Amino acid sequence: MLKISLLAKLNLIPNYIYETIVTTYNVEDNLPNAAPMGIMLLDEQKVVISPFVTTQTFKNIKTNKAAVINFTQDLEIFYRSTFSEMRPKLPEIVFEKANEVEAPVLKDALAFLEIRAQEIQIERDRSKIIGEIARWVATASPFHPLNRGYNLVLESLVHATRIIAFKDDMRKVTTLKNLIKRYQEIVEKVAPTGKLTKLMVRIQNVIEKELGD
Q1: Per-residue pLDDT tens for 99-109?
Q2: Do residues 17 and 99 lie in contact, with contact meaning Cβ atoms separated by under 8 Å?
Q3: pLDDT digits (tens, 9 = 90+) for 10-61
Q4: 3-class state of residue 138 by DSSP
Q5: Nearest to 174, CA basis, from 186, 163, 187
Q6: What DSSP string describes 10-26?
Q7: Quick count: other Cβ atoms within 10 Å of Cβ 177?
Q8: Is the pTM of this model over 0.90?
């Protein structure tokens, strides 16, 4: 049984969405498959993966009942695993077999979670796969998983300073306010509790005060 204190070492917060590379073995040829995907930690033992039902990842997990969630900050890997037709596939040499589940691991991952699929739900074109963490490894310390909220807070801060600087230009102000509003919606989705959501509220409050809204 895994303890939350161990997962806390990976800086994973329940209900946050982290950008990862999910790796599986193809049903057809048993070759490694990699796909960028947001995942959510439910508690100290379970995670949610939500691939579209038309994807190879869903097909592989449905059959093999296994996957590995890889944490990396290498955007080249994200790029090459995103565009199935445009990208050169990741070579087999970058993978190795997981210890506890029937799935490949990215050798250079900063951390990874080996997952056993326990429940598969389907709603229209998307699935919700609840997986149990069979094993986790962190190869980098300190480890910081990718969450879109951090960059969006930074972008909002930049836009807020521009709103203040150009507050007499209502066209520009409106455009920037709409961007920040959209960023806030995304932050509330990917980081629904804690500092990031609170910072977005504070940014909005500063803007309203400066503009006299």
Answers
A1: 999 999 999 99
A2: no
A3: 888 899 999 999 999 999 999 999 999 999 999 889 999 999 999 999 999 9
A4: strand
A5: 163
A6: TT--TT-EEEEEEEEE-
A7: 19
A8: no
* The amino acid at 168: D
DSSP state of 52: B
Top-tier CATH class for 6-138? mainly beta
Amino acid at 100: E
* Omega cis (within 30) before 142: yes
As given in the structure block, the two tokens for residue 182 are 């959209």
Helix (H) or strand (E) holding 106: strand 104-106
153-162, Cβ contacts within 8 angstroms, sequence gap of 24 or more: 153/183, 153/187, 153/196, 153/199, 153/200, 153/203, 155/179, 155/183, 156/180, 156/183, 156/184, 156/200, 156/203, 157/203, 160/203, 160/206, 160/207
Using CA atoms in the order 58, 61, 62, 63, what is the torsion angle rounded to 10 degrees?
A: 130
CA nearest neighbour of 56 among 98, 95, 15, 89: 89
User: Minimal CA–CA distance to 170: which of 126, 124, 212, 204?
Assistant: 212
Tokens at residue 212, please? 């006299």
